[in-house]
Design a protein that fits this description.
By secondary structure, the chain is of the alpha+beta class. The chain folds into 3 domains: 4-143, no CATH class; 153-290, Jelly Rolls; 300-374, 3-Layer(bab) Sandwich (Phage tail protein beta-alpha-beta fold). The protein has helices at residues 21-25, 28-35, 41-53, 58-72, 80-94, 108-127, 131-136, 256-259, 312-323, 348-358; strands at residues 4-5, 142-143, 153-158, 164-167, 173-176, 180-185, 193-204, 213-217, 220-224, 228-233, 239-245, 248-252, 269-271, 275-280, 285-290, 306-311, 326-328, 338-342, 361-366, 369-374.
């Protein structure tokens, strides 16, 4: 495995609120902050801000710092009371019989070495081979393995002329189109599910609010919790994301760190069923619109599209509900317009054309919105 160089950066989003002292002690970003407290203002600002927002975690953080200091400084020793308190928690964590720790020689040097041995044992258990190489050498040390587990990716290809179905470890189903491939983890690790697509695929994502599902395609990222959608992203062509069910956030890959936590993507869009977004590579922009052939959402028997002298407002409302679209028009101008038409099994855009012709109006698509404008009906 390629060595990982230790550097400074803002800690990635982790569930620090659930961390124990030993969890903090084995965290790479935490270790760098403790060892080089004044060398990186960004890292320092992050931890100071995090502690200010989460004061209940100060005790675990301080215990983790003391464990690390015991390794960094061989002459470092916390107070007897603090040692007893931490050792008690260590015994609980490691399932050691609750027996008192007796130090036969009271000399400060011996007691300090004893404390160092305790701390070293714990650090060894929780950090494993990360150990002293990182603690006792310079900040440019190369480590043979990473502290945190990394997912093992598998490449799934479809070199046939027919679609191929791939089922992921979490139950998500992917229909991979011809001449496409996707890199997926053998097991999802961490608080996100990420895959990398080249080509076209339809996703039926297993819902998991605790682990958002991300599809990386060229310059954009598609983020969902659980829904179905299609992504087309072949090389040298624009990227298109179409939504069948649920809601999807699409944003530029460079904005991933700016809003992904709450789904409020920077320079991104939120899509609903029958909507799509196209990323124009030459202009580097996202364009939202309705898909080419919108379908009725839900069960068809609910909508008959048989209108007999119906007020146009009621007709538009049914169309909006059936297709999940927004129709904008001047209610006052079209207040007296009524419709007589049988539009069952007629595609949406043909429905709009026929309705507008009947009331002497016109329509146009503006992004994912339908604008209808016309004259008053007699």
């Amino acid at each position: 495995m390629k060595p990982i160089e230790v550097g400074f950066s803002i800690p990635m989003k982790k569930s620090y609120l659930s961390y124990t002292a030993t969890d903090f002690a084995r965290d790479a970003d935490f270790l760098k902050w403790v060892k080089y407290p004044g060398d990186n203002p960004t890292l320092t600002a992050f931890w100071e801000s995090w502690l200010s927002e989460n004061p209940t975690k100060r005790e675990e953080v301080e215990e983790a710092r003391q464990l690390i200091f015991a390794i960094l400084e061989h002459n470092y020793r916390p107070s007897d009371e603090k040692q007893a308190e931490i050792w008690s928690k260590i015994r609980t964590t490691l399932h050691i019989d609750d027996q008192p720790v007796v130090v036969k020689e009271p000399q400060a040097k011996v007691r300090t070495l004893f404390w160092v041995k305790i701390a070293a044992a714990v650090i060894f258990l929780v950090v494993a081979t990360f150990g002293t190489t990182y603690f006792l050498t310079g900040r440019n040390t190369e480590l043979p393995i990473a502290v945190e587990s990394k997912p093992v990716f598998i490449k799934e290809e479809n070199n046939t002329s027919s679609p191929r179905t791939v089922v992921l470890a979490d139950g998500t189903s992917i229909i991979l189109q011809p001449q496409s491939f996707i890199q997926v983890p053998k097991d999802f690790i961490g608080d996100q599910r990420e895959v990398y697509l080249t080509g076209e695929a339809f996703f039926e994502v297993k819902r998991d609010p605790a682990k958002p599902f991300l599809v990386h395609t060229s310059e954009i990222v598609t983020r969902v919790l659980g829904t179905s959608f299609n992504v087309r992203g072949f090389e040298n062509e624009d990227v298109t994301v179409r939504v069948k069910t649920g809601k999807v956030s699409v944003f530029k890959a460079k904005d991933k760190s700016k809003g992904i936590a709450d789904g409020d993507a920077v320079e991104g869009v939120v899509l609903s069923p029958n909507q799509q977004v196209v990323y124009e590579r030459d202009k580097m922009r996202l364009s939202k619109s309705l898909i080419e052939d919108p379908v009725v959402l839900g069960t068809k028997p609910r909508y008959h599209f048989e209108f007999t002298d119906e007020p146009i407002k009621k007709v538009f409302t049914e169309i909006e509900e059936a297709y999940g679209v927004d129709i904008v028009y001047d209610e006052e101008t079209l207040a007296n317009c009524r419709l007589n038409a049988s539009l069952t099994d007629v595609p949406l855009y043909d429905k709009l054309r026929l309705m507008c012709k009947a009331i002497n109006a016109q329509y146009e698509l503006l992004d994912s919105q339908i604008d209808v404008y016309g004259k008053e009906c007699g």
